Amino acid sequence: MNDGFVLEGLFLHLVRSGFPLGIRDYQDALSALRGGFGTGSRENLLWLCHTLWARTNEESRQLDLLFRRFPFPSDEQVRKIAGESIKQPEVEQLPKPATTGQPLPPTQPTKTPIQDRRSVPSAEIVSRNREEGMGLPRARVEPNYEEMFILARRPNVSLRALTIIWRRFRAARREGPRVELDLDATIDQQCCMGILESPVLVPARRNQAKLVLLMDVSNSMLPWQDFQRMIVESLQTSHLGQAAVYYFHNVPADVFYRRDTLTRPIPIEKVLKECSSSTLLVFSDAGAVRGFNRRQRVQESADFLAQVWRHWQPIVWMNPMPADRWKNSSAEKISQLSYASMLHLNEEGLVRAIDVLRGKPLKAN
Amino acid sequence: MTQPLYRGDKTDFYLAPPNVADGVNLAIHLNRPILVEGEPGCGKTMLAYSIAAEKKLGAVTKIPIKSTSRAQDLLYRVNSLRRLQDAQSQLNPNAQFIYPYLSLGPLGNALHQPKRSVVLIDEIDKADIDFPNDLLDVLDTFSFEISDLPLEEEKKCKTTNGFGRKIQSDKKTQPIVVITSNREKRLPEPFLRRCIYVRLLFPRTSDELRDIVRKNTKLTTRQMNEKILKAAIDSFLKVRAKAVGSAQKPPSTSELIDWIRILHWKGKTVQELTKDPELPPYWQLLFKNMSDIDAHEAVAKKSSEAKS
After folding, report:
1. Do residue B32 and residue A28 have CB atoms under 8 angstroms apart?
2. How confident is the model at residue B223 (pLDDT cuts 50, 70, 90)?
3. How much is the mean pLDDT over chain B?
4. ipTM of the complex
């Protein structure tokens, strides 16, 4: 058995599976081993790896699966791994397992001393090139239908990133009670009058950016339901001047709803009045999910946009489907309308959407 | 290892589960901050005090975080207002310098002092989303620079205040940083990566709970005998089992300890506790709001009716 590979191999696999780990995390693991942590039993080593490298449930699950594939080193080997790394520079040592490291057990299944190997479906890792990362595993056995899967949510944009993106949307203006000291004016006054009568106060700067969000909650948008909720949640910490969320079904029309269950209707006139001179973000697939091209839908959407365009500008239409899927569907036609810019709903798209909402026109594609 | 390990059971007020103690030891060994999460009232804050007491590190530097906290406030402060006042008078030549108005914040002080200490950053999730990131570099290198102090004043500052522009903690005296979070806001990814994550779960067995109660209430077996304590804990577990998942704040260890103190004070007996275990005497103390109390009463009455 190759000595240095137990942690290195595991670590490299984790990095290739997209764990955001750096050399320092690996060094810390070695330092911990040297300090006597994670030695003695397999569970202890697994605990160490979990504590240092996994941060989410999904990561823990992946780590568990990978860990079970690697044979457990003896104490002597652990000492050797930890000892070797002191003498050798880390950077040179890291690529080692790529050439000498033992590959995954399925290629040499008899050498793995793991008892419960049978419960793990062996998998063949398909990867054309090492630099490209790990390919999709192709199971060699029949899938076990009773196996429990933990499906972790993966939002298009994380909650934190959303909050940060909203904060880019600024239109600060001085408004409200006079509470802030205007230093220049105060000094001017003192110079003019010779005495300081009273400090000059001005209203504090506040974000006056206004935003109306219209969310499509039709069946085709069901895969993004959780994400839509997250968007609404993120607005609470967004520091926007005003942010209102309304829901509609399939095509925005004369009536919106205050709840995502399409209850508590509110007529469009009232919304236009409540949120006057705001900007508008529409979250809808515009027919791109199913790929239908319906003239009626395009016409209705165009009518709607023309109606609100006089009140709300600019308008951005966020489509959860990527741009190449808009082709030959209603989404393509709607994206060509002059009223709104259509963007793909991801982090980059949202950043650009905020730019558009702030008045920077979208570059012609 | 040179230092004795943290065990979590040596103090007379705290009992840490073994996996938590392991996490703490690992964090101390790697000089990483410890991020503690868990439901309210399960002893997140007490963990820091227990580490300080067990490792004999003196008083804990507690930094309560508010929504307006800024990372720089933890490091150092410049008292500009006093300087402005001093500058009005010609007789005060000090006002032309910054260093007399410079003082270290709680974290800065912990980094600067020549002995090891425990720093508790309490409820970090209350702060604004950029706060953890601003602190990341300081917790990573255990050093920071006072950029407000001009270079030419550094010498004078060193002689009067005892510190220069750069505050760097010695490797041996790096503070043990404990950060607690209630998960109100999600913490940034790089920050999570940097910390050793410790999750405090509610104790699984009634024996663990008994030890925790004994440690905290300091009631001897003569003052409160084993049978009453066991009946009380069993009854508490029943109440909690009903409340978990439905109540806004299910009763936790801190509520249990208060409740047992009351039971002892009022001299309740085993019979009173076992008569209706789901609605024991003073059960209302275990909840923190009206709706939880009402909900629990309804559920408990329904189940007792079903039994009879």
Report:
1. yes
2. confident
3. 86
4. 0.76
Q: What's CA A253's distance to the chain center, in Å?
A: 31
pLDDT at A6: 63
Provide the 3-class DSSP secondary structure of residue B281: coil
Please state whether the peptide bond connecting residue A20 to the residue before it is cis, i.e. omega within 30 degrees of 0. Answer: no
Q: Tokens representing B303?
A: 């189940």
Number of H helices, E strands in chain A: 14, 11
Question: Residue A365's pLDDT is what?
Answer: 45
Owner of token pair 């950053």 = B121
Q: Establish whether the linkage from the previous residue to A177 is cis, with ω within 30° of 0.
A: no
For residue B2, what is the nearest residue in chain A, using CA coordinates? Answer: A35
Is the confidence at residue A86, as pLDDT, over 60?
no
Q: Test A37 with B196 for CB contact under 8 angstroms.
A: no
Q: Over 60: is that where the pLDDT of A232 sits?
A: yes
Shortest CA gap A120–chain B (Å): 27
Q: Which of residues 148-177 of A touch B (CB under 8 A)?
A: 158-160, 163-164
Tell me, yes or no, if A20 comes closer than 8 A to chain B by beta carbon.
yes
Under an 8 A CB cutoff, do A48 and B26 touch? yes
Q: Pick from B94, B121, B129, B92: which is nearest to B105 by CA?
A: B121
Mean predicted lDDT score pLDDT of chain A: 78
Q: Which amino acid is at A341?
A: S
CA of A227 to nearest chain B CA: how many angstroms apart?
Answer: 16
Q: Which of chain B's residues have a Cβ under 8 Å away from the Cβ of A55?
A: 189, 192-193, 197
- A vs B, Cβ pairs < 8 A, gives 41
Q: Which of B129, B192, B193 sits opposite A163 (nearest CB)?
A: B129
Beta carbons within 10 angstroms of residue A68's beta carbon: 16
Q: Is the CA virtual torsion A133, A135, A139, A140 positive or negative? A: negative
Q: Averaged over A163-182, what is the pLDDT? A: 84
